[in-house]
Design a protein that fits this description.
The protein is α+β, with helices and mostly antiparallel strands. It has 2 domains: 24-58; 61-151, no CATH class. Helices cover 23% and strands 28% of the residues. It has a 3-stranded antiparallel β-sheet, with no helix packed on it. Strands 3-4-8 form a 3-stranded antiparallel β-sheet, with no helix packed on it. Strand 3 and strand 4 form a beta hairpin. It starts with a helix and ends in a 20-residue tail after the last strand.
Length: 168
């Protein structure tokens, strides 16, 4: 008997047992982990989809600082409301029967201030000042005018943090 054989025979035998094997040769623990992973993976798409739906359903509306918009009157605004909105007429003044000078077609859009004007379909008198996407009248105004609050996904009106428009 050689030295190598003696060393091998004098070492203590293992007392732990290996995990029972499944039919495919993996341990039950590995099969359990695989099953848990599969169940988690099946649940995640539904959870992610529900979260995406909730996010998509929530209106996007927030005040942004550090922006710069200058209207045709020379007023510069460094804060705006960035918000989801419906397609809307942009009026020269905050009046229901005022002159439509532009169309607001994109969403979300920005609004630099608010003004109290005529009572509109939304049941309040708040109008937001912005620049329309398509000028339809009075080209020298470059589409700057007012949109009634009900066309914008704001609540409450006026939206907190949005300044009142400057006179003049």
């Amino acid at each position: 008997m050689g030295v190598t054989e003696m060393t091998r025979t004098t070492q203590p035998a293992r007392t732990t047992q290996a995990a029972p094997r499944t039919r495919r040769g993996g341990s039950r623990r590995a099969a359990g982990a695989l099953l848990a992973s599969a169940l988690t993976a099946m649940c995640l798409p539904a959870t992610a989809s529900a979260a995406a739906s909730a996010t998509a359903a929530a209106p996007v509306c927030h005040v942004r600082e550090g922006v710069r918009h200058t209207d045709v009157k020379g007023h510069t605004y460094t804060k705006d409301l960035y918000c989801e909105n419906a397609v809307a007429d942009v009026f020269a003044t905050p009046e229901v029967y005022g002159t439509v000078i532009a169309k607001l077609k994109t969403s979300p859009s920005w609004f630099v201030c608010w003004e109290s004007g005529d009572l509109h379909q939304g049941g309040n008198r708040i109008w937001y000042y912005t620049q329309g996407d398509e000028v339809t009248n009075w080209p020298l105004w470059k589409g700057w005018g007012y949109v009634p609050a009900f066309r914008i996904e704001t609540e409450p009106d006026p939206f907190p943090g949005v300044p009142a428009c400057m006179p003049g």
